Amino acid sequence: MAAGVGLRKVSIPSAVEIAERLAAGALSAREVADSCLERIGARDGEVRAFAHLDPAQVRAEADALDRHRKAGRPIGPLHGVPVAVKDIIDTATYPTENGSPLDAGRRPRQDATLVARLRAAGALVIGKTVTTEFAYYRPGPTRNPHNLAHTPGGSSQGSAAAVGDGMVPLAIGSQTAGSVIRPASFCGVVGYKPTYGMVSLAGVLSICEPLDTAGVFATTVEDAALVGTVLAGYDAADPRTRPVARADLLAAARSEPPAAPRLAIVRGPTWDAAEPDLVGLIDEIAEALGDEADAVDLPAPYDDAFALQQRLMKVGFARHLTRYLERGADAVSELMRAAIAEGAAVTAVDYLAARDMQTALAVGLDRVFDRYDAILTPAAPGEAPAGIEATGSPVFNALWTFVGTPAITLPLATGSTGLPIGLQLVGRPGEDGRLLRTARWLQRRLAEA
Amino acid sequence: MAAGVGLRKVSIPSAVEIAERLAAGALSAREVADSCLERIGARDGEVRAFAHLDPAQVRAEADALDRHRKAGRPIGPLHGVPVAVKDIIDTATYPTENGSPLDAGRRPRQDATLVARLRAAGALVIGKTVTTEFAYYRPGPTRNPHNLAHTPGGSSQGSAAAVGDGMVPLAIGSQTAGSVIRPASFCGVVGYKPTYGMVSLAGVLSICEPLDTAGVFATTVEDAALVGTVLAGYDAADPRTRPVARADLLAAARSEPPAAPRLAIVRGPTWDAAEPDLVGLIDEIAEALGDEADAVDLPAPYDDAFALQQRLMKVGFARHLTRYLERGADAVSELMRAAIAEGAAVTAVDYLAARDMQTALAVGLDRVFDRYDAILTPAAPGEAPAGIEATGSPVFNALWTFVGTPAITLPLATGSTGLPIGLQLVGRPGEDGRLLRTARWLQRRLAEA
C-alpha cells in the first residue's frame, strides 16, 4: 500500500475475542465491564461519548451475567460483551432522551426490540451514547477521540467515539442520511449499516420510515457480522422486517470468497465534495487493486438521490417531530425547525415521486451488482472537520441510505492531519453476508499491497 | 321475507352453467357468443354498455376456442365463457381509452395481467365496457338496463349494465371508491370486490395504488367466486400482490358454514344518506335474521374514513392524471380538474396520516370480525337515481375500499320505483372464501324467510 494509506491499529480486544474468552471461563463479564468502565472513567470527561451511564448498575448486571454462566446455564453469542446504545433507542434501564431537552428524563417502559435481542444474546448494555438532536444536525458535546478539537461526526456520535476511543468494543447507532458510515470513518472504526429492513426499529425514534436503519460500530468486520446476526430478524412490531431465515453473518464474513471478488469503484454523483486526502486514497486503492476493480459511473438519475433523500427525511421530520414544536419550539434547534418547515411543505405528489425513484434507483443498481461483488465508494469527504459545532457532510452516504443497500465503513487510512479516513463498501440488498466477506477480503488484499 | 323485499330473478345462464355445458360438449363457445351478441345487438343501442365490440372478432375467437376443445386439448375453468372488461383495463385485442377523449384510439401492446389470466382460463373477452372518465365521476352514455332513464352507477357502469341486462354472464370492473359495489346494486347483479391486493392491477389504469381494486360483476355468487379464483394470485408486476397459495373460492362458496353464521349489521358513519327504501330494507332484514344478526356501531374514528379515502384518491388523481392536463386540459372534465387540483395541494404529512389511519381502521375491524362472520351494510343509498348525468354516491363504499376488506353486493330487493337495491356483505381481509360462503348462506336464509 502506498504512503499515507495504512490500516489503523486497534487496541481493545474484539467482541469475538471477549465472547470466546468469556465462554471459556478465561475472563469474567465483570472484568470486561470494569476495564470498559475504567477507560470510560479516564477518558469520557473529555470525549463525552456517553449520555447515560451507571457504573454500579453495569457492575451488578455483569455480576449477574457471571452468575448465570457459572451456574452452567446456556449463554448467548454476546454473553458478557459490553455494548453502548445510541440515545434514540429505547432502553428500560436507562433514560432515552433523543438528544433533546424536551425528552429530558424520558424513561421508556421497555427495551427497543433490538436492545431486547442484544440482551437475549447475553450482551451487557453498558450505557447510552450521545446523539445529535433527534439524530439530525445539532451536535451534542462529543469530541473525536483521535483529536478532541474535531467532530466525531453524527448523528451516532457517541457510539462512534466510544468505540473509536476503545471504551467499548461495540456500539449501536442508526442512519437516516449518513449517521453510521460517516462517524465510523471519522472515528477510525468499522461502521456497518445492514440492508434496509433487516433490523427491527420498534422502540427506536422514527425519523423517516423509508430510510431509517439501525447500524453497528465495531473494531472488526467479524464483530459487526456477529452483532448483525444477533440483531437481524422478523419483528411483528416493525412492518419493514420480513419473516425470512436468519443468516449466520459471522460465518459468511469468515468464509473464503468462492472466486476472486471484483469491485466497482464508484466515485459517485457528489464527487465534487471529495477532499484531496480522499481523492488520493481512492486513486491509491484503485491502483493497488488493478484489474480487480473498475471505475464505474452511475447514470444521471442518481444525481438526484441526495436531494430526494433529503426530501423524504424532511417529510419524516415534519411527520414525527412537529409534536416537539408544540411542546416547546424554543427548545428545538433552528436547523431542525427549518427542516420541519421544509418537510411540512412537501406535497404528497412530490413525496410519492421520491418514493418511486427510491425503488427505481435501487433496481437500477442490479446492473452493477450483477457484475461486481461490491461497490467501493467514499464514506465521507475526508478527515473529520475541525470543531464540534457541526458533524460533517452526509453527501457520500445519502444515496446508499436512499436505496437501502447494506454498507460498511472500513477504517483504511489516515489523512494528512493524522485523523482516520474510512472507505465505504456497498453490497446488494439482502446480501449482507457477501458484503462482509468481501470487506474482509479487501482488508487482507490491501494489507498485502 | 317481508313485502317489498324479494330476490331478483336472473334470466341468462350463469358462467358456471355455461362452463359445465361447454365442457360436456352440450354447448359451443360459438353458440354462447352468438347468443350474447344477439342480446347486445338488440339492446346495446339503448343501454350503451359497450365501448368497443367487434362481433366478427368475437365469433372468430369463439370458433378458435371450440376448435381447441374439440381437438381434445385441456381447457380452463372459464373455457368459452364471455367476459366483458372495463375500458380502463388494457387489452391487446381492443383499444383501451380510459373514458377519456385524450386516450381515443389508444391500443395497448399487451393484455393486463388479469386479462391474460382470464384468457389463460379459456374466457372469451367479448368487448370493452364503458367507464366514467378515468373511473371517476363524468359518466359515459350507459343507461340502467332496468330503467333507461336512470344511471347504472359508476364508474364500472358498462360492466354492471351489461351483466344486469343479460348481455354477458360476467364482467370485470374496478373500485377505488365505490365503483363495483354501487353499480352492482343499481343494476341488480352480484358485485364482488376481492381483498385488496388479491388481483394484480398490472396493465390497469392506476388511480390510487393504496385503494385500487379489481372487481367482478356476475349473476350469482358462485360465478363471482369462480372468476375470483381465476384472477387471484401473485404477479411480480404488481407489488401489492403476495406470493400466497391460491384458494379455490368456488369450492369455498359452495361449502356449508361449519356453524351458523352471525352477521354484524353496520349502518355506518354515513347512515344519514340512507333513503327510505334502504332504511326499510335493512330493518326488514334485521327482523328476518333475528338473533343471527346484531346491530353494531363503529367507533368515532370511522367517521373520517370517507374524507380520508377521498384524500388518498385525489392525491392519486394528481399523481397519475396530471399528465392528461398537460396533453389537453380542455378535454378533462371540470370535476376531474378540480379533483386533481385538490389532490395536488395535499401535503405529504397529511397523505401519510391518511395512510396510517388506513392501517388503524383496518386493524380495528378485527374486533368485529372476531365475533361475526361478515358485516351486512348498505351498498348504495337506495335505488339508482334518475338521470345519467351523475352516477350516484359512493358514500357507503368508501370506508370498505379504504380498509381493503373483501365485499360483495347481493341483489336482494326491489325499491319503491321498481329498481334493484343490493346490500353489501363485507368480510375480513384475506377471508374471501368465507365471505362468499356467508353470502350464499344469506341468500338462502332470506329466501326462506
From TrEMBL, chains A, B:
Pfam family of the protein (one): Amidase
Chain ranges of the Amidase domain: 31-436
Record InterPro entries: Amidase, Amidase_dom, AS_sf
One GO MF term attached to the UniProt entry: catalytic activity
Domain of life: Bacteria
SUPFAM superfamilies per record: Amidase signature (AS) enzymes
Family label: Belongs to the amidase family.
PANTHER family named among the record's database cross-references: GLUTAMYL-TRNA(GLN) AMIDOTRANSFERASE SUBUNIT A, TRANSAMIDASE
Name the record gives this protein: Amidase
Species whose genome carries this gene: Acuticoccus mangrovi
